[in-house]
Design a protein that fits this description.
The protein has 218 residues and is an all-beta fold. The chain folds into 2 domains: 43 residues, no CATH class; 160 residues, no CATH class. The chain has no helices and 28 strands. Strands 8, 12, 13, 17, 18, 22 and 26 form a 7-stranded mixed sheet that branches. Strands 6-10-15-20-24-27 form a 6-stranded parallel sheet, with no helix packed on it. The radius of gyration is 18 Å and the shape is globular. The model has no long low-confidence stretch (mean pLDDT 88).
């Protein structure tokens, strides 16, 4: 196997469901159907496991930037792992978000963190994911997107901590409803959200989300 645009080397292997769920590794080499990974599984995958192989974005640090008058400040669209977005400021963008989805195959978004970011003006016009917001409010968001073939949690282990959001912005979750939620294991902690109407959208009683020591108000 040679390196190239369609090579397996460098791609991610994700255990989405069954035994070993929540683990991922990177392919170091490939020889036919035999893959060598950069780490061993803590819990071995077996016939109950659902596994996907996909390109991924991992270990990005997006720190201390200012974003303004853009469709979105930071967006992880599809496979993204272990990224940290910290200390950034957004004005008149759709905000900060990650999406796990099905796009010809599973694209998980796991273990991403939003820390100490500020949305100082949440008004956005013709922005958002896919330029889908005509006019609306900014978010710090995590979206497990619905598709008929989506089954396991595609957004896993997201942390939103110590962010400050203006009155025309909010925290938003998608995909944490139903018997097979597409978002799991989120922490929303010590944020200030100056939107007292709907500071967190998409949180439901059956959601695997910890909401702790946040301030909601004017």
């Amino acid at each position: 196997m040679t390196n190239g645009p369609r090579s397996l080397v460098g791609q991610g292997v994700f255990v989405l469901g069954g035994d070993g769920a929540g683990q991922f590794a990177q392919i170091e080499s490939a020889d036919g159907n035999v893959l060598t990974l950069d780490r061993s599984w803590t819990v071995a995958a077996d016939t109950t496991s659902r596994v996907t192989i996909t390109p991924m974005v991992q270990n990005y640090l997006i720190v201390d930037n200012e974003f303004s008058d853009a469709g979105v400040a930071v967006q992880f669209y599809g496979t993204s792992v272990n990224n940290v977005v910290a200390g950034n400021t957004s004005s008149r963008t759709a905000g900060f978000l990650n999406r796990g989805e099905w796009y010809h195959h599973y694209e998980p978004s796991w273990y991403n963190q939003y820390l100490d970011n500020s949305i100082v003006d949440g008004a956005v016009y013709r922005g958002g994911p896919d330029n889908s917001i005509f006019a609306g409010e900014a978010v710090i968001g995590a979206y497990g997107m619905f598709h008929a073939q989506n089954d396991p949690p595609l957004v896993l282990g997201v942390i939103m901590r110590r962010n400050r959001l203006s009155k025309n912005s909010r925290i938003e979750l998608q995909g944490c409803t139903g018997s097979k939620p597409l978002l799991s294991s989120a922490v929303i902690e010590k944020n200030i959200v100056l939107n007292d109407i709907e500071p967190i959208r998409g949180q439901y009683p059956d959601c695997d989300v910890l909401v702790h020591e946040n301030f909601f108000g004017r």
